[in-house]
Amino acid sequence: MSDFPVIPVGDVLLVSIQGELHDALAVRLQESVTTAVQRRSARGVIIDISAVDMVDSYLGRILAEIAGCSRLLGADTVVVGMRPAVAITLVELGLTLPELRTARTVTDAAAVLGVAMPITDTASSGADRRGAR
Amino acid sequence: MSDLDAAAPWSPQQSVADLLRQRREQIAQRWADLPLFRSVFTVTRDEAVEAAQSVADALVVVAASGRVDDIEASGFDSVRTQIGRMSAARSRAGLSVGRVAGEVAALKDAVVELLTAELAGAPVEHQHAAVLYAAELLSTLRLVAMQTMFNEGQELINRQRQQLMEVATPVIKLWHGVVAVPLIGTLDSARSQVVMENLLDAIVAQQARVAILDVTGVATVDTLVAQHLLKTVASARLMGAECIITGIRPAIAQTIVQLGIDLSDVATRSTLADALGYALDQGGLQVRRTDGRTVSAGESR
Amino acid sequence: MTTGPTAAALRLQIRSDTDLSLVRQQVRAKAQEAGFGLVQQTKVVTAASELARNTLVHGGGGEMELAEVAQGGTRGLRLSFIDSGPGMADVDQALTDGYTSGNGLGLGLGGARRLVQDFQIDTRPGAGTTVTITAWAQSLGSAVHR
């Protein structure tokens, strides 16, 4: 579970995916997020994938399923910070994920969810540093 | 001639390889005076002779290998750069590919003459076989030269296309979080791809919420280009930005409908100004006159 | 066509989840080495991930063969995914988006084909499956070559 710190910020859960996400880890991510949504009665989930360098159909499906499960539990999911190369590849793969809500930064995602973000935008500024390398 | 050579049965392969090896100097001297070498190596004649020798050496390897009709024969590898350099210099001098190929073919004469003299006393069928073999070897060399020229031309075209695309598709920051790319001229698949990547990179760099693709300057839209536009919109959305297409002219709108392309999921506005107004509105911003007069319908949203 | 392998082929086992990660890492490293741009890299890594997962899930495991290729100055990667699983009776059907014999989205094969410039599949029921893909460093170059 320590691979994905699920950080509660107000009514929202913030998940930042770091590093290589292999299939078993992706399944654990799904479990820990849905468990946390229920336990905290969260209104929203923000998943920061700015550090993820590849999303294949399996991981794409996991993200869509997290959004679907959270929806049933009363929380909207916003995926944040997808890299251009990852987005182009997903679209070419045929996976446009229309049911998934997206935003550029965590602050924007909070606005999409209709909640104020009491913390500074660390996840997205971190993404920019990584992206620039 | 060693005993081994004498014992081996006669073959055109061996005969031509031997001639090229033994008469290397003579051949190189005659080649060096041909326009192909003379006009490329203008500083000293020795330089031309040396270049001609290395071509002759390569031909020995190919002749001995028996693969005279194969432009991929490994023996040609060493001569490819050399021939490529010379051919490039000749075409820079204004010669057509055909003329350069003709100059390469002219290398044959010296070889055939020497070969005929060498085999003067040999059976007539040996003479024919050897000349045929040498002719085939040198026409393959001509093909190698043409292939090299063709590849170099192709690479040049690719490089120039790349450069053209990089300068032709600027992404403009219209406002904080709003970027736009004005598309101009003809969009082919490769150029649409560069546009797409540039725009998506700008979305990251500017943390843009809205990206505008203005197609006012686009001459025609075919299925492939329309698909690229749709892919750009879908990719931008995955990244968290809304992509708006503006400036679709009536003729292009008609084409899109006739092609049966579904743009219903894509946000469109008639002009870039409308899209900017929409983006500002989305960002909670409003345009206001400072002289107290009311904002006209065209200026407000 | 002058698409001969320029270096010795590399072989990787595909037997577990962890092997899939290894496949992605190796393909990423080789694509970087061959001068692939970021988008091309991501496409070939994603295609490899889809096909390796197919090998694991549908083929019961197998291996990937990776070789560098070159054509007219453009460098590329050729990847083969080989299993001796049940094979497929209808390749066209398997390549159709949405078709799945497992519990995936059914985008694996057809999707992977759209991510690379060359895609070949060799399969018969009971005789295993080999999928071979080739991707080039520049999508521009490939558009001209074709």
Structure description:
- The complex is a heterotrimer of chains A (133), B (301) and C (146).
- Chain A is α/β, with parallel strands linked by helices and 133 residues long.
- Chain A has a single domain (6-120), classed as STAS domain (Transcription Regulator spoIIAA), CATH 3.30.750.
- Chain A contains 5 helices and 5 strands, in the order ββαβαβαβαα.
- Chain A has helices at residues 23-40, 57-72, 84-93, 106-113, 122-132, and strands spanning 6-9, 12-16, 44-48, 76-80, 101-103.
- In chain A, strands 1-2-3-4-5 form a 5-stranded mixed sheet, with helices on both faces.
- In chain A, α1 (23-40) links the parallel β2 (12-16) and β3 (44-48).
- In chain A, α1 packs parallel to α2 (57-72).
- Chain A is globular and about 35 Å long.
- Chain B has 2 domains: 3-160, Globins (Globin-like); 172-282, 2-Layer Sandwich (Transcription Regulator spoIIAA).
- Chain B contains 13 helices and 5 strands.
- In chain B, α5 crosses α6, α6 crosses α9 (124-168) and α7 runs antiparallel to α9 (124-168).
- With 146 residues, chain C is of the alpha+beta class.
- Chain C has a single domain (10-145), classed as Histidine kinase-like ATPase, C-terminal domain (Heat Shock Protein 90, 2-Layer Sandwich), CATH 3.30.565.10.
- Helix content of chain C is 39%, strand content 27%.
- Chain C is built from 5 helices and 5 strands; from the N terminus they run βααββααββα.
- Chain C has helices at 17-33, 38-57, 91-95, 108-115, 139-145; strands spanning 10-14, 62-71, 74-83, 118-123, 129-136.
- In chain C, α1 runs antiparallel to α2.
- Chains A and C meet through α2 and α3 of A and α1, α2 and α4 of C.
